Amino acid sequence: MYTIGIYLYMLAVKLAALFGHKKAERLIEGHREIFSSLEKGIKEGNNYVWFHASSLGEFEQGRPLIEKFRATHPEYRVVLTFFSPSGYRSARNYQQADVVCYLPFDTPANVRRFLDIVNPKMVFFVKYEFWLNYLSALKKRNIPTYIVSSIFRKEQVFFRWWGGFYRKALHCFTHLFVQNESSKELLASIGVKNVTVVGDTRFDRVAKIAEQAHLLPLVASFVEDGKKIFIAGSSWGPDEDVYIPYFNRTPGWKLIIASHEVNEERIKQIEEQVRGLCVRYTQATIDEVRSAKCLIIDCFGLLSSIYRYGTVAYVGGGFGVGIHNVLEAAVYGIPVFFGPNNYKFQEAQQLKACGGGIEISSRAEFEEKIAAMDKDSSVIENAGDAAGKYVSQNAGASARIFEVLGL
Which of 3, 193, 253, 259 is deepest in the core (most CB within 10 A)? Predict the structure, then answer.
């Protein structure tokens, strides 16, 4: 039944592509090139380690492991696969991998062909990837297979009375590296005991990003007048409805807004809402940003470095699809606001518990809490210290994984 489901999914993707669905089109186009890319990229006589990430977020979790592996074991080559077009398109030129491609659909024929070509010496799946035919084949071939930065919840299929078929997949892993004790306990309840709690490799990733953060002269000029800086990252329209009104009537702050979507419509929406001069990062001059109220980041790739310039951060998505990466801001030791849809994000819950994260559920609640910070700078300082300590104290998952594996 599982394999039939995979074939039906393949058919649905092909039909969606025929009707102009852009993501499906990119997926089908990428899948046409998988095996030719592998046959061209895999060199006989080399030993390969295979890392698989579903999308961009999982790739960022896996990067510390890939880069640590390359640094400590240069004798191995790396194959990196993705399920989603967004992940593949963002990382297809990643220099730490020797081959980057899509993961072939999980059919028995694809699995055999992929594993015959790559012949990996070990395999790492990142967080939430349970492709049953791949896992079964890897176990039959006695290839060490690990899942890292994983987190389990009781509502998942593995812990349902009818989830026996999927529970078999968990027994295919040589070892499972999970984020917390509750995941380990849940797995033990269904007989999966080859589990170690190591935390989340994303802490290692954001710490590395902070170490390598770019100096941005334009942003530095924007913040140099001494006003407090509110940085909204991955911002959506409902987020802006919550935080912009306060700053429209509060002169002591400047805004930096990085929208989740970068297009002309979204940028104009922000410009129409903010009272005061708005400038766009790619179009502004040093003189223009000094007198601006709001700097709009109209390009990708800068947000993780921009947070270093903030007094307070806001991470968007919490009034819709779910919050984005709070750790990218917290690593700089600044308070992090976010909306109510955060219950599936362990790092947000823990950041809130330690005092470094501030959940808000309405515009009125946001204004009450930001006004308290405006009135007393020690509130900002204390929350920022808590955020920074939370990240630093939880780094090191990659090293713990390597220690357990004896690498």
Answer: 259
